[in-house]
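debug: dumping io for the single-chain case to check the tokenizer round-trip. Nothing else runs in this session.
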Amino acid sequence: MKNIAKRLLSLAAALSLCVSGAALSARGAEAEAEAESAAEPVVLYSADRRFSLTACEAAPGGEVTVAAEDLGGWDCWCAAVHLSLDGADRYSLVGPDGQLPFLPLAQAAELFPDARMSAEELSRTFTLTVPEEYEGWTVSLRLAGPTGASEIPLDPEPEWEPAAFQAPAAFRDVADNDWFQPYVAGAVQAGMMEGVSENDFGPGRALTVAELLTIAARLNAGFYGREIPRARGEWYAPFYSYCTEWNIISTRSFAEEDMGRPATRFELAAVFDAAGCQARTSRPVNQIANGFIPGLNEHSAEGRLIYRWYRAGLVSGGDGGFRGDAGVTRAEAAVVVCRLLMLAEPARIE
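debug: decoded output
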């Protein structure tokens, strides 16, 4: 536990894991420098990017005050400190009245059925402690809601960093000065896209429905820590099966003959949104009034989705509007993928 606290202090208090009573000894100027660094708030993202936390205070050997933020509109209703060691798990629910004892999850849920917090409550600061008896256990903060659960390790190893935008492969059709090069590099490095051949990415080629479902399955599997099982059939069969199994699409959404046709801009937004990307569209970066997108009513089913995406800076359109029925190139898809994964800045609309 002391080692964990030391490493987290070196990360400028990124949700420090401090054990009550395990105070670190002073080390002169070096200790003072660490303390100054620890006082700086730092945002730490969950592995699937569904939410983030900020360390507001770091008191070595004592309690740590943190703030949940950027919950992405996710309807969270349970927060817990999760400890695990050699297959054993303990959970300490964090309710409106504070942190509860560490127990197996089923027992904790049975004894404390009312230990639930709304997203608004979680957006306020709360205090976490880990007793000394759990020294050496792996610790994370777990948020659960109707659509699943997500965690932030409080021992962040390795430290998360945005992907370096360097070409992962020498694609003949992707030059260093091409506008799409950073996005292609990011999407490929993240494992979301690959070339159309060993030497070509095909940036100007239309994204097919099969490729769209492939990316959606990979995004969803990455967000939720799932595996994409093998399936017999065409190369896209595992991804199509995954998308139907996890209700990203219905079996009636696309027929076999659709797989090779170009995907539309609206299909890209709708499928990615259903894949679990809604959290990235709930924190607007653009102030856009209804009527901004020509020919698209915000209160229609398509409009509600696309206005969210515009406000989140995931897509943009020219004077002609969103053009939802138009196709999308593989380079354009790479841009959206990088924005969803927070590997690129959102589109700013003045």
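debug: round-trip ok. The CA atoms of residues 6 and 314 lie 38 Å apart.
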